Amino acid sequence: TQFGYQEVPMEEKQGRVDDVFHSVARRYDIMNDLMSGGLHRLWKNAMVSWLAPPHSGRPYRVLDMAGGTGDIAFRISDRSRGHAEITVADINGSMLEVCRERAEKHGYTNLSYAEANAEELPFEDKSFDAYTIAFGIRNVPRLDKALSEAYRVLKPGGRFLCLEFTPVSTPVIAQLYEAYSFRVIPMIGQVVTGDRESYQYLVESIRVFPNKERFASMISDAGFERVSYRDYTTGVVALHSGWKL
Ligand code: SAM
């Protein structure tokens, strides 16, 4: 790219991603606020609003994949008034550790944890009513595997929701966004975490992610139906939805 980034081969990608999140786990939450100017909170709220988890009735089980430090799980819990039973799964023990501490501090008792790879889930078929993944799927090397695992572990009638940065197609916005993401974000990363490279890598992983239409068809290919998506913040972020029917 014009910024001199070299693409990481598929076999090395997961190791690289794991290093990034081990290194930033303790500063992850503050970094999100700094990098997005707080916008990530609105995007996450929008995701949980679209999910609209029930707050009564039969048990409602959610798998929050790549759940990191728990932002989505806590929102789902709040929104369901504590009714949802949420499994926070992440490949990275350091991120889950921060999640556990936050959950304890804020008194969440309806959460369980699993150190797991999205490509190979340690759960039985048809275990969950919903599968959520926020800013996680672009880190997974084999998207198709992650999507078919999501499909497998959902119950019939289950919901798939994925929040993710997407490549921007509007030219002016794309230029602004590129300047921001390739110059400002690694700089904030350097100042706050001392780790410029990790953030440069994260930014690059957005650029190579499939566009919204392409990603929607990958979700359909995994077996999901009624696939649709919503755009946020001029298409910087998209929220994809699908149903296992
Ligand atoms: N969902 C949280 C949020 O929105 O704040 C965390 C998102 S964070 C940007 C991405 C997370 O994906 C990290 O916690 C990372 O460890 C996790 N991750 C990366 N590759 C993964 C994989 N193959 N399987 C499961 N989790 C993975």
UniProtKB/TrEMBL annotation:
EC number, UniProt record: 2.1.1.163, 2.1.1.201
Xref: CDD domains: AdoMet_MTases
Name of the top EC class for this enzyme: transferase
Top-rank taxon: Bacteria
InterPro entries found in the cross-reference section: SAM-dependent_MTases_sf, UbiE/COQ5_MeTrFase, UbiE/COQ5_MeTrFase_CS
GO BP annotations listed: aerobic respiration; menaquinone biosynthetic process; methylation
Keyword match S-adenosyl-L-methionine: yes
Pathway: Quinol/quinone metabolism; menaquinone biosynthesis; menaquinol from 1,4-dihydroxy-2-naphthoate: step 2/2; Cofactor biosynthesis; ubiquinone biosynthesis
Sorted UniProt keywords: Menaquinone biosynthesis, Methyltransferase, S-adenosyl-L-methionine, Transferase, Ubiquinone biosynthesis
Catalysis: reaction(s): a 2-methoxy-6-(all-trans-polyprenyl)benzene-1,4-diol + S-adenosyl-L-methionine = a 5-methoxy-2-methyl-3-(all-trans-polyprenyl)benzene-1,4-diol + S-adenosyl-L-homocysteine + H(+); a 2-demethylmenaquinol + S-adenosyl-L-methionine = a menaquinol + S-adenosyl-L-homocysteine + H(+)
Transmembrane segments: none
The keyword Cytoplasm is assigned to this record: no
Residues annotated for S-adenosyl-L-methionine binding in this entry: 69, 90, 117-118
Single Gene Ontology MF annotation: 2-methoxy-6-polyprenyl-1,4-benzoquinol methyltransferase activity
Listed SUPFAM superfamilies: S-adenosyl-L-methionine-dependent methyltransferases
Family listed: Belongs to the class I-like SAM-binding methyltransferase superfamily. MenG/UbiE family.
PANTHER family: 2-METHOXY-6-POLYPRENYL-1,4-BENZOQUINOL METHYLASE, MITOCHONDRIAL (PTHR43591:SF24), METHYLTRANSFERASE (PTHR43591)
Functional summary from the UniProt entry: Methyltransferase required for the conversion of demethylmenaquinol (DMKH2) to menaquinol (MKH2) and the conversion of 2-polyprenyl-6-methoxy-1,4-benzoquinol (DDMQH2) to 2-polyprenyl-3-methyl-6-methoxy-1,4-benzoquinol (DMQH2).
UniProt-listed NCBIfam families: MenG_MenH_UbiE (TIGR01934), PRK00216.1-3 (NF001242), PRK00216.1-5 (NF001244)
Protein name: Ubiquinone/menaquinone biosynthesis C-methyltransferase UbiE
Species of the source: Afifella marina DSM 2698
